[in-house]
Amino acid sequence: MSADDRIRLIATDLDGTLLDPSGHVSTRTRAALDAARAAGILVIPVTARQPIGLREIAAEAGFDGWALCGNGAYGIHLRTREQLFASEIAVPVQQRIARELGERISGLLFASVREAGEVFVAQDGYAALAAHGDHKRDPETMGAVPLAEVVATPSLKLVIRHSTIAPPDLFAVLATLDQDGFAATLSGAPFVEVMAAGVSKATGLAQLCARLGIERSEVLAFGDALNDVEMLRWAGRGVAMANAEPEALAAADVVTGSNAEDGAAIVLERLLAG
């Protein structure tokens, strides 16, 4: 990176990227993040997680400002709770997805993320498949309602899973539907994630950068999964982890070490060393 490639914002995915395999921020990575902040660079988490999941690791990572959640569906300030923007899936679109995908695959289960990511409404039977780590929520708090109720209110993110069919296979079937009104992706979690049409980590990041007066050429982004691809392409410099999915590796400008090897810290240390 040359002296002309000034970085003002670091946008980083969390799971599989910034966090180590145990789901925590290593000492080396935290030191690199703190050094970046001390140099005047903003560090922004851009994640599929909701605020409840971010709060689990906010202290470890030093996050207390803007965050992009739900794969870029909404931007929220972690300290003030101000919401910068929110893009929801329309009810008719959700109902169509549930109907048409259900016609192709029986036994699907749905959940809806709402209200700045604080509300999670799960279909009856969903919690039985879920572990705390899936959504950073106790499955006993997820509730159990009929599918019609899950899709009756707009969602920031609609989650689809199955007891035996793997997410990539669900994703492939979902891709055969008319895509009008929604966008879908995978994050490495045990479910497919559906957002409003056009929503991605890149679109969320673009909105935040517009608010902050930062150019895309001034953004350094880290990621590892399919839901990071658009962000890696959009940023002035996209960095994929060595453990990244093939699509993310292809989208990145640079490949660093894995999340188990403090790959993000390696890049940040080199950047700050000039």
UniProtKB/TrEMBL annotation:
<dbReference type="GO" id="GO:0016787">
    <property type="term" value="F:hydrolase activity"/>
</dbReference>
<dbReference type="InterPro" id="IPR023214">
    <property type="entry name" value="HAD_sf"/>
</dbReference>
<dbReference type="Pfam" id="PF08282">
    <property type="entry name" value="Hydrolase_3"/>
</dbReference>
<protein>
    <submittedName>
        <fullName>HAD family hydrolase</fullName>
    </submittedName>
</protein>
<dbReference type="InterPro" id="IPR000150">
    <property type="entry name" value="Cof"/>
</dbReference>
<dbReference type="InterPro" id="IPR036412">
    <property type="entry name" value="HAD-like_sf"/>
</dbReference>
<dbReference type="InterPro" id="IPR006379">
    <property type="entry name" value="HAD-SF_hydro_IIB"/>
</dbReference>
<keyword id="KW-0378">Hydrolase</keyword>
